């Protein structure tokens, strides 16, 4: 496919981030099938804690982040598992976004853990995306025991690397899918 723009958002701020390495591999696979790709590294964005009383345009780089996601055809969200969920930098980034950035958009998910499978990270991200009426790929990537799975920026486990590459190809393949009608979660997502 051509003319598909895939944007990945890295929810890890660590210098040697396994999440970033995983997203880079997924984007490489998307690029290999003809997509234009960008990695949004949240370390490079000034994103103050979300405050509903502050306009997005007055909140550091929030408006720019939202613009890039709004213009993407597909998005990959990646996060390390923190306390059974996803990271606060990614939560802040998502709080500055809404239906304009995610509704009817194809989203792929990556969860990375230092320990066992980051299932709840992926579940929580899936719930947020459904609340925004995004179309979340059934195929997702969990990277458990990340320090054993990735060494010096390279995947040690070929099967895991294949799953990551498949995610990159699938976001391109399904970027133009006609999504189902909005979810119940989206109908109830009115803010407080």
UniProtKB/TrEMBL annotation:
Residues 5-146 form the NADPH-dependent FMN reductase-like domain. Its cofactor is [4Fe-4S] cluster. It comes from the Archaea. GO terms for molecular function: FMN binding; oxidoreductase activity. It holds the Pfam family FMN_red. One of its GO terms (cellular component) is cytosol. Belongs to the SsuE family. Isf subfamily. This is NAD(P)H-dependent oxidoreductase.
């Amino acid at each position: 496919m051509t003319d598909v723009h895939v944007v990945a958002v890295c929810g890890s701020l660590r210098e040697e981030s396994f999440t970033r390495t995983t997203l880079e591999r997924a984007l490489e696979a998307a690029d290999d099938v003809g997509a234009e790709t960008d990695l949004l590294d949240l370390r490079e964005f000034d994103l103050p804690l979300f405050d509903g009383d502050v306009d997005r345009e007055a909140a550091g780089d929030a408006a720019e982040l939202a613009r890039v996601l709004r213009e993407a055809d597909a998005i990959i969200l990646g996060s390390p598992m923190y306390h059974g969920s996803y990271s606060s930098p990614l939560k802040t980034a998502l709080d500055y976004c809404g239906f304009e950035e995610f509704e009817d958009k194809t989203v792929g998910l990556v969860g990375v853990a230092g320990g066992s499978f980051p299932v709840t990270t992926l579940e929580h991200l899936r719930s947020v995306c459904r609340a925004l009426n995004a179309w979340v790929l059934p195929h997702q990537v969990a990277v458990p025991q990340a320090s054993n799975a990735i060494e010096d920026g390279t995947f040690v486990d070929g099967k895991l690397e294949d799953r990551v590459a498949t995610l990159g190809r699938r976001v391109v393949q399904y970027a133009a899918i006609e999504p189902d009608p909005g979810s119940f979660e989206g109908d109830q997502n009115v803010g407080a």
